[in-house]
Design a protein that fits this description.
Helices cover 14% and strands 42% of the residues. It is mostly beta strands. It has four domains: 30-88, Ubiquitin-like (UB roll), CATH 3.10.20.90; 90-204, no CATH class; 206-273, Resuscitation-promoting factor rpfb (Resuscitation-promoting factor rpfb fold, Single Sheet), CATH 2.20.230.10; 284-346, no CATH class. The strands form six sheets. It has a four-stranded mixed sheet with strand order 2-1-4-3, with helices on one face. Strands 6-5-8-7 form a four-stranded mixed sheet, covered by helices on one side. It is elongated, with a radius of gyration of 43 Å. 14% of the residues are buried.
Length: 346
């Protein structure tokens, strides 16, 4: 009797464990991230292995028509290695060639698939007035026409497309191409479509970007009569500044095409580098000052030599002014220690 009770308790425990494991499996599948592809539109979703394809689509807000299909099928459970759910839309379209019309029904097809299924016997150079890579939409009319081929380049793709008579704008409307405010078209919109026309659309976008840039310092020259002529000293080191520059940047098909500075703000001023040159007279054989060319002394006085006399007049500074009137000559402005100034042509 005692052993029977033990067996009953063990069986009950095992049953409870099994039920619990079943509940865990039923209530908590493995998380899976996959992509839903619906007529070229990609949607990334996170689902789990306890969900079906139908439940995953419903959770993503994607509804299906009565004749639409999916791959995997709707009632298929999501597997741990499921990467994509492909939605195949049903479409009944009309293909027209001359005076003939054929209705075609396809699930998950393109314009090229519909033309192939219509199986018209056509002449050479006959193509569709709709891009053959476009997905089919229910009720679409596809016209097969000869001649008037347009090479269209837009959004990174180049295709040859048959065109009806009309303007460039009419053609773009037929191709369901919308132009942005700044987009550029190689032909005028009111120009007539011609056979062999090459039509290029550039997607243009303008953005404002702000960058921090360096400001170079300048070197400033000064003169001091407390320093001997011909000597020089850096009396202040230079330091670069910073400014914030705002640019208007033009992007063409996602690539930068040009930029224009529209404003700037100095956030840290540059510090000039200062070099001081001596202009004082030296006692000795040569005490002339070389203010305009450091290290090279200039003569002063009637004999070109400075003397020991405190009343000796000597050159303090010499500034060069280049030719400004096209004559081929400039002049020096020379300042002397007694305060008078001379101008000497060169």
């Amino acid at each position: 009797m005692h052993s029977k009770m033990k067996f009953s308790k063990l069986a009950a425990l095992l049953t409870a464990v099994c039920l619990l494991m079943g509940l865990l499996v039923a209530c908590g599948g493995q998380e899976v991230t996959l992509e839903i592809s619906d007529m070229g539109t990609k949607t990334q979703v996170t689902t789990s292995t306890d969900k079906t394809v139908k439940q995953t689509l419903e959770a993503a807000g994607i509804s299906l028509g009565e004749k639409d299909e999916t791959d995997p099928a709707l009632q298929t459970k999501i597997a741990a290695d499921t990467k994509e759910i492909l939605v195949k839309r049903y479409a009944k379209v009309t293909v027209v060639y001359g005076d003939e019309k054929k209705e075609v029904e396809i699930v998950g097809g393109t314009v090229a698939d519909a033309i192939k299924k219509a199986a018209f016997k056509t002449e050479e150079n006959v193509t569709s007035d709709v891009s053959e890579s476009s997905y089919l939409k229910d009720g679409m009319v596809i016209n097969l026409v000869k001649g008037m081929l347009v090479e269209l380049t837009v959004d990174g793709k180049t295709e040859e497309i048959a065109a009806k008579e009309g303007t460039v704008q009419d053609f773009l409307t037929d191709q369901k191409i919308t132009l942005g405010e700044d987009d550029e078209v190689s032909e005028k919109l009111d120009a007539a479509i011609t056979d062999g026309m090459k039509l290029v659309i550039k997607r243009v976008e303008y953005k404002e970007e702000t960058k921090t840039e360096e400001i170079d310092y300048t070197t400033e020259e000064r003169y001091s009569d407390s320093m001997a002529a011909g000597s020089s000293e850096v009396t202040q080191e230079g330091a670069k500044g910073e400014k914030e520059v705002t640019y208007k940047v033009k992007y063409v098909d996602g690539e930068e095409d040009s930029r224009e500075a529209i404003s700037e703000k100095i956030t840290k001023a540059a510090v000039n580098r200062i070099v001081t040159y001596g202009s004082a007279s030296n006692s000795g054989s040569d005490n002339s000052a070389g203010s305009y060319d450091p290290g090279t002394s200039s003569s002063s006085g009637s004999d070109g030599q400075g003397g020991d006399s405190p009343n000796e007049v000597y050159e303090v500074s010499r500034t060069q002014f280049p030719d400004c009137d096209g004559s081929g000559h400039g002049y020096y402005q020379i300042v002397y220690s007694d305060g008078h100034t001379e101008y000497v042509d060169y």
